[in-house]
Amino acid sequence: MKRYYFDYAATTPVDKRVVKAMQPYYSEIFGNPGSLHKFGQEASAAVFKARNKISKLINCDYREIIFTGSATEANNLALRGTLKALISNYKFQITKTDNRPRIIISAIEHESVLETCRDLEKTGLAEIIYLPVSKEGIVDLKKLKEFLNERTVLVSIMYANNEMGAIQPISEIANIIHDFKNSKLETIARHSREGGNPEIWIPHQVRNDRSDFETVYPLFHCDAAQAFNYLNCDVKDLGVDLLTLSSQKIYGPKGVGLLYARRIMNQELRIVNGERIIHNSPFFIHPLITGGGQEEGLRSGTENVAGVAGMAEATQISFDSRKKESQRLFKLQGYFLNKLKSIKNSKFILNGPKIGEARLPNNINIYFKNKKDLIFKLDFVGFAVSGGSACSARMAKPSHVLRAMGCSDLKASESIRISFGRQTTKQEIDKLLVVFKNIINGIIKK
User: How many whole angstroms separate alpha carbon 271 and alpha carbon 280?
Assistant: First the structure.
């Protein structure tokens, strides 16, 4: 039986061009990048070339690219690393509940963000604010403004949701955070003019150019694992301090991810009481994995040279094909839904935003009333779809994303996600539509 893959949001097949780019680093150029001899320097050059290539594609300094073992690890580094740096740099001590650093995330984040924050909350290291979303899955910006306060050290909002494709207004969120920082500066300046000493909880960065003076916190992290294939990920345009990417979502190898981490322009920091301290690291985050000090000291361990080279090639290919592929999938997305509507007795609900600018062009999340076990019925006849995040699909729990959007437990547990990719063709979609027709009409019952 021939099988058809419609779960590209879970993972993507490795592009043949990527496999070719990786091949030399398995047995020909096999040295340790940390070694000083020729073998090591060849491997080190490959890692540098990959870092430099990706940095140009997202518009940052090559030293701001931190390779990790996955997007999950990158998200953990952003969240836990921010708190670790805060506590270490400023000798901060949590003495009471209302003295905890605040982290703001959306209620529909990926499990690697959501569960990490729950753990930080459980252990008392941070206060976590879970921003509500609309019925379309878009973050409530009014609530964000409401919850930002002087204890907020990090805001983490995903660029595009992995389950139902909702695209968040990242640049607008960045502007809200920027405006909040400026309001803190105005408070500092006003108290300075009045001869007072404001009780600003978070220390602030001192730059040589006072006109460019901004407070350090809150930092802004964005999980862009689902976004890179289709959306602009220029970190300057987005206005983010930290950004996560995943290799396996862009037709690269599994086991590789990265975190963009903005470097501090001036490493001299000042606390409001006038005491000056020097940041030992050029970053606002501290490492979770220590050892040999690889990856700018933020992620120790011998680099996965083949994986890194593969991710760089995959990133370049996705970047170059982004516009054309987005347009192609957008047409297929609309074609599928229109044909599905035309099937007799086809009663379904599209979860998330309507087809258009607020939704990824490869994502369709739908609920069929009174049609249970669709994933298994489709798989039985050779069609692979999913119920949501592959990281939690085996737990058989209602989708936390759909529940946050106001869906009932029944709807959240029985909705399915169909996601297209490079290999998806109109002919394959037509075959999927025939299967849906047969299921709806009771021809396929198992």
Answer: 16
Helices and strands of the chain, counted as H and E runs = 13, 15
Dist CA 253 CA 246 (whole Å): 9
Cite the active site residues. Answer: 391
Query: Has residue 367 been placed in a domain?
Result: yes
Residues 243 and 304 in one domain: yes
Instruction: Specify the pLDDT at position 442.
Output: 74
Cβ neighbourhood burial of 27 (10 Å; 0-12, 13-18, 19+)? exposed
Range in 7-11, 81-85, 347-351, 387-391 with the lowest mean pLDDT: 387-391
* Dihedral (Cα; 14, 18, 23, 25), 10-degree rounding: -110
What is the residue range of 403's domain? 4-9+322-440
Provide DSSP, 380-411. HTTEE-BSS-TTTGGG----HHHHHTT--HHH
Cβ-proximal residues to 150 (8 Å cutoff; 6+ apart), any chain: 184, 200, 201, 202
Please state the separation of Cα 192 from the chain's center in Å.
39
Instruction: Give me the amino acid identity at 133.
Output: V
Task: Classify 127 as helix, strand or coil.
Answer: strand
pTM of the model: 0.91
